Amino acid sequence: MTRLIGTLTFNFDDTDSVERDLFAIKNSELQISNSEISGADPTDISWAYSVPELTEWSASATVNMEVDEGVQDITQSEIEELAFAKTEFPIDFVAPTGTVYSGTVFVRTFTISSADQVIQEIRIELQGTGILTPVFVT
User: Fold this and answer.
1) Domain range annotation of the chain
2) Residue 123: pLDDT over 90
3) Is 2-38+50-135 a CATH 1.20.58 domain?
4) pLDDT for 71-117, tens place per residue?
5) Which helix (H) or strand (E) holds 78?
6) I need a labelling partner for 64 at 20 to 30 A (CA). Which of 52, 72, 86, 116 fits?
7) 86: left (phi over 0), alpha (psi -120 to 50) or beta
8) Contact (CB, 8 A) for 9 and 91
9) Half-sphere exposure of residue 110, counting CA atoms within 13 Å on the CB side?
10) CA dihedral 68, 70, 75, 78 (to 10 degrees)
11) Is 35 within 8 Å of 41 (Cβ atoms)?
C-alpha cells in the first residue's frame, strides 16, 4: 500500500459547468493498494507464491469549513448532495513531488464535527472508480 500526502482538488462540476475547488484543507492523502493472488510456488510447493492482481485507490481530506457557506467555492450542502446521490466526480491530487494524479471518485464517507458555530471540521473519504492517471513532472 502506498500513501501520499499532498493537495486534493475536487473538480466539482455543477449545473453551470463551472469547476470549483474545495479549499481550507488541513490534510489530504491518496492511497494506492494492490490485491494479490496467492498459491503455491510452482517451482517449490513449500513456498507461497503471490502475484499482484487488482489495483484500487482512494483519497481522503480533512477540511476546516466556515459555516457561512458563502465563503466556500463548494458548500457543505453540495458535498452532502454528492454523498447522498452517490455522484461520481473528478479529482486531482498533487503529490509533493509535483506529480498530479487524476481520477474519478464517489464519496464513501462524510463526517462533520463542529466545536463552535463558525468553523466545522469535515472528513471526506473518496473511493476511486477506475483508472488513476499520473502525470509526471519532468
Assistant:
1) 2-38+50-135
2) no
3) no
4) 455 666 777 887 888 888 888 888 888 888 899 999 899 888 876 66
5) helix 76-85
6) 86
7) left
8) yes
9) 13
10) 120
11) no
